Amino acid sequence: MNEKKNYITIGGKEYPFPKINFMAMCDLEERGFDIAQFTKKPLSCTACLLGYIMNTSTENACKALDKEIEAGGASRLGEITNALVELINESDFFRNMAKDETVENPTTE
Predict the structure, then answer these.
(1) Can you count the helices (H) and strands (E) in the chain?
(2) pLDDT tier for residue 52 given thresholds of 50, 70 and 90
(3) Measured between alpha carbons, how far is 84 from 53 in angstroms, rounded to an integer?
(4) What tens digit of pLDDT does each residue of 12-27 get?
(5) Bridge partners of residue 24, in order along the sequence
């Protein structure tokens, strides 16, 4: 059985996945990350999120991604992007945001 990885390896260094919560999303927005744009601008979003994980600028994350692509081609970029999408999809923050709960207002008699 495969154990889920809780880190991503970039340039031979393991970076642990951070907890994605409200504060993390605020930090990511400050960096220019817009989850609504992930399908329209996947490269920019990947670089921004990777920079957050690596605790570096988006520019430095782009440089690291260039090296990863140079070493592993498009398949390596796909691996990285898929890992980041999985991180987002499996985060408690986005799972909770996706809940479709209807809260009934109490009535007074």
Answers:
(1) 4, 2
(2) very high
(3) 10
(4) 999 999 999 999 999 9
(5) none
